[in-house]
Amino acid sequence: MNMARRPRPEKSAAKDTERKARRGKSAKGGRAIPSGLAARQVAAALVRRILHEGTPLGEALARESGALEALSAPDRALAQNIARTTLRRSGQLDEAIGRFVKKPLAKRAALARAILRIGAAQVLFMRIPAHAAIDTAVRLAKADAAARPLAGLINAVLRNISRQSDGILKSQDAFACNIPAWLRRNWIAAYGEHTARRIASSLLKEPALDVTVKDPAQAARWAKALDAHVLPTGSLRLDRGGRAIPSLPGFAQGAWWAQDAAAALPVRLLGDIAGKRVLDMCAAPGGKTAQLAAAGAHVTALDMSARRLERLRENLARLNLEADIVCADALTWQPETPFDAIVLDAPCTATGTARRHPEVLHLKTPGQMTQLMALQGAMLERALGMLQPGGKLIYCVCSLQPQEGEMRIAQVLQDHADQVRRLPIAAQELAGQAQMITPQGDLRTLPCMAIGEETGLDGFFAARLTRLQGRLATAPSWSRPFQDTKRAP
To answer: Catalytic: 327?
Structure first.
């Protein structure tokens, strides 16, 4: 019988980290540690999960939730700030570290690599004294059996980075370092190098919090209560100053929900939907479902993830809104009757959300985008098949790549030239924000784009289509990417 000890499951490891954090101990059972060190311990764990294991930020935060909750509010904010800064600047950090580490670290040195990254992030990009960043990094390394042999290396590398920080930063091209080469080429081809660099620069900034008010007539009231201001398109924007979203005025009462100002635009392109049957495909976590329900539509919220739909149910319950919730695959589910309107927020690379989810730039690949393009085409076909002739379909993605947005629409209009029409968007529908409208009449927002007196939005694409009378022919091309050699990734 093999009596070798099995590796401890991650969940158990996370619980152990939580217990030790609550007792002020290291995860390896060492001496009591100061709160600032505990915050960095959690930050290193987050960075390791994301950059070494490929875990999305939201999932990593969930896995480390116990350790995060064991921290004080300031330390919790510090841990997340260090982790997010490290993710946003990971390319620059690795380039700086690489100047002083000539041999790649072994795979088993994942935590040591994460400690180096968060230490360099504090030295180069955060207002944290270098001695504090270096000392805590070395102490974290010494507290872990695998990282302990590299404590001296970590100390030497971070001291060198500290001494040469000005020269390092002056010599780096943040755009080239932080944006993967395939995305740089894609964005330059789509928007030009100047705008591509502006996009990359915007992704380095911590975004403000945007919220959508359930009753638009109450926007001024909640803007005052939240110390926010109303954007031209109706969203509220505020700096929550590290406060947890559930603690903000109006959240518990269901007066509003968090939603980027760009993400709130596609539903508004449907116009008056009171009393109409509307399908929200890929509905979870429910921001657009809430918009549709609040506007008086009879909403069917469709998603294939039971776990994500549970969050949608919780959100609707808090907001006191209703929808018919269906857990099914959008490619096979069939409604009894067609819908008056459909919103398809299709699965995508989500590069437009990189201000809030900086890890997407490093976790997504060209191959994944190609697969997603095929899925987007298939979902567009299904959505058109479930749409009442004369109804409206909003297709949207939070991707900056035109292959997932503009080219998807070009393909469907080419495949159904006699059956599908684009309904161009007018500036007055977006409160006069003409910069958001493409020459073809679609919506395109960029992270560097201005909205009123503010700057900063998620990158979003949306097109509005309608289906003409008659049976929709099956397009043979949905499973292949739309070919455009000028905009190849």
So the answer is: no
Cα distance between residue 371 and residue 377, in whole Å: 10
Any idea what the Cα angle at residue 398 is, between residues 53 and 275, rounded to 5°? Answer: 130
At 212, list the tokens: 């959508």
Largest CA distance in the chain: 74
Q: Which residue has the higher pLDDT, 8 or 197?
A: 197
Strands 298-303 and 324-327 turn out to be parallel
Cα–Cα distance measured from residue 450 to residue 430, given in angstroms and rounded to the nearest whole number: 13
Neighbours of 343 (CB within 10 A): 29
Residue 383 CA neighbour count, 13 Å, CB half: 31
Task: Identify whether the C-beta of residue 260 lies closer than 8 Å to the C-beta of residue 236.
Answer: no
Q: Domain boundary residue among 140, 172, 204? A: 172
Quote the number of domains for the chain: 2
Which H or E element spans position 155?
helix 151-163
Residues 397-446 pLDDT 10s: 999 999 999 999 999 999 999 999 999 999 999 999 999 999 999 999 99
- CA-CA distance, 425 to 407, in Å (whole number)? 17
- Choosing from 155, 172, 189, the residue where a domain stops is 172
CA distances from 345 to 41, 90, 107, 243, 384 (A): 37, 29, 38, 29, 14
| Residue found under tokens 């969940």 | 11
Report if residue 238 sits inside a domain.
no
Please state the rounded mean pLDDT for residues 124-152: 96
The residue segments making up the domain with residue 366 are: 260-487
Is residue 144 in a domain? yes
- Cα torsion 281, 266, 447, 125 to 10°: value is -50
Q: What is the pLDDT of residues 14-44, one digit of tens each?
A: 444 444 444 444 444 445 556 689 999 999 9
Place of tokens 């529908």: 429
Alpha-carbon gap, residue 69 to 170, rounded angstroms: 38
Give the span between the Cα atoms of 407 and 423, in whole angstroms: 16
167, 265: one domain:
no
Distances (CA, A) of 46 to 123, 132, 487: 19, 20, 35
Query: Exactly one of 282, 348, 396, 398 is catalytic; which is it?
Result: 398
Q: For the CA atoms of 189, 191, 194, 197, what is the dihedral angle to 10 degrees?
A: -90
- The DSSP secondary-structure symbol of 441 reads S
**3 state SS of 100:** coil
- The vertex-281 CA angle with 186 and 386, nearest 5°, equals 110
User: What is the DSSP annotation of 168-235?
Assistant: HHHH--HHHHHS-HHHHHHHHHHH-HHHHHHHHHHTTSPPPEEEEESSGGGHHHHHHHTT-EE-TTS-
pTM of the model: 0.89
